[in-house]
């Protein structure tokens, strides 16, 4: 049996359960493609799954390869694959209930894969899918964000937040973003109209009458966000499901988004990247064998943009 280098877990726990090893190379089945991974993005969901937080929901079988952000080349096709061909350069946010991309190869359903942006390398392309789709599905599908609306984006410098800022500006929205002081210049350059320092200012005292709140934090941040919304506005969370009762009491709407794979939206994201309207910002690049360090950095909660593993 052919093998590949991969980072797996055999049990749930801290960073020490990550194992860099030789694992069996997967084979593409019906409607699937085998991708040679060039780069894999790291996201908070990776260490949340490693810690066992999603085990009831996802019912993974261990050992499990982590990582659900990938850019690479199509190496082989399963039967029934018609849209992609061997040699295509692609990117994907694959199904997180299956083995991930901290590996030299991954098998993904063709329907979850899009051609990568031509103008950026694999490292930057691997930063885009999960966080880019999350921002897209939250602001556009759930929030219906449109030109001229005011949007408050929490953790605007983070993996999801920075794409949300760029997509909201592309739509023509007025963007307010929260971050600590070290990220203020970064956010202004990204196009944020009003930056709020969440460490020194209570954001609800600096922000009023927004159409959309994008909550990437949950907890106290979510609770304090209701009062900044206009009547009829919407709070969208990707951190914890907002209360329908509290929303009704404020005369606003709420939604919880759990991001889904979507090749058509990835193709839109690739077009924006190639038109230089969406930049992938990568703060740290590490070798695959250093996935443990990458997850430890992510867990600190202060990444600017993304952390990406170089595989090739
Ligand atoms: N439901 C879904 O489908 C879905 C999808 C993607 C992500 N998520 C979740 O969404 C969350 C964000 O993901 P991410 O990838 O953007 O995380 P991330 O990249 O790790 O976020 C880091 C950012 O958070 C900022 N931050 C930390 N504490 C903050 C606070 N109290 N207020 C405002 N900003 C703060 C940091 O800015 P400073 O350094 O300036 O503090 C940093 O830039 C995670 O919990 C993740 O699991 C859910």
What is the CATH architecture term of the largest domain? Alpha-Beta Complex
So what's the overall shape? globular
Hetero groups: NADP nicotinamide-adenine-dinucleotide phosphate
- Could you estimate the helical fraction of the residues in percent? 25-40%
- Can you identify the CATH superfamily of the largest domain? Medium-chain alcohol dehydrogenases, catalytic domain
Strand content: 25-35%
Computed structural class: alpha/beta
Major sheet size, sense and barrel closure: 7 strands, mixed
Q: What distance lies between the first and last C-alpha atoms, to the nearest angstrom?
A: 21 Å
Gyration radius, in Å: 19 Å
What is the CATH class designation of the largest domain? Alpha Beta
Q: What do we call the CATH topology of the largest domain?
A: Quinone Oxidoreductase, Chain A, domain 1
**Domain unit count:** 2
Mean pLDDT: 98
| N to C succession of SSEs | EEEHHEEEEEHHEHEHEHEHEHEHEHE
Unreliable stretches (pLDDT < 50, length at least 5) are: none
Put simply, the count of helices is 11
Number of strands: 16
List keywords for this structure.
312 residues; alpha/beta; Quinone Oxidoreductase, Chain A, domain 1; 2 domains; seven-stranded mixed β-sheet; six-stranded parallel β-sheet; globular
């Amino acid at each position: 049996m052919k093998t590949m280098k991969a980072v797996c877990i055999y049990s749930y726990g801290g960073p020490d359960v990550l194992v860099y090893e030789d694992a069996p190379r997967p084979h593409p089945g019906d409607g699937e493609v085998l991708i040679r991974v060039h780069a894999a993005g790291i996201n908070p969901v990776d260490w949340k799954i490693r810690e066992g937080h999603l085990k009831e929901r996802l019912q993974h079988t261990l050992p499990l390869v982590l990582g659900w952000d990938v850019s690479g080349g199509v190496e082989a096709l399963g039967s029934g694959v018609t849209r992609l061909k061997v040699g295509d350069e692609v990117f994907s946010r694959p199904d997180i209930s299956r083995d991930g991309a901290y590996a030299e190869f991954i098998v993904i359903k063709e329907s979850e894969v899009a051609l990568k942006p031509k103008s950026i390398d694999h490292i930057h392309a691997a930063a885009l899918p999960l966080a880019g789709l999350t921002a897209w599905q939250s602001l556009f599908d759930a929030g219906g964000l449109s030109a001229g609306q005011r949007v408050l984006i929490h953790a605007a410098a983070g993996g999801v937040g920075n794409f949300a800022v760029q997509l909201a500006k592309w739509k023509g929205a007025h963007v307010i973003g929260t971050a600590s002081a070290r990220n203020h210049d970064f956010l202004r350059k990204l196009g944020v109209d009003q930056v709020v320092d969440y460490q020194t200012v209570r954001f609800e005292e600096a922000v009023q009458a927004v159409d959309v709140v994008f909550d990437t934090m949950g907890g106290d941040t979510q609770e304090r966000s209701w009062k900044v919304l206009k009547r009829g506005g919407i709070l969208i969370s990707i951190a914890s499901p907002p209360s329908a009762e509290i929303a009704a009491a404020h005369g606003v709407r709420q939604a919880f988004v759990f991001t889904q794979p979507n090749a058509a939206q990835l193709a839109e994201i690739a077009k924006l990247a190639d038109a230089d309207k969406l930049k992938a910002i990568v703060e740290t690049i590490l070798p695959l064998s250093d996935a443990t360090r990458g997850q430890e950095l992510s867990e600190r909660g202060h990444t600017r943009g993304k952390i990406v593993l170089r595989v090739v």
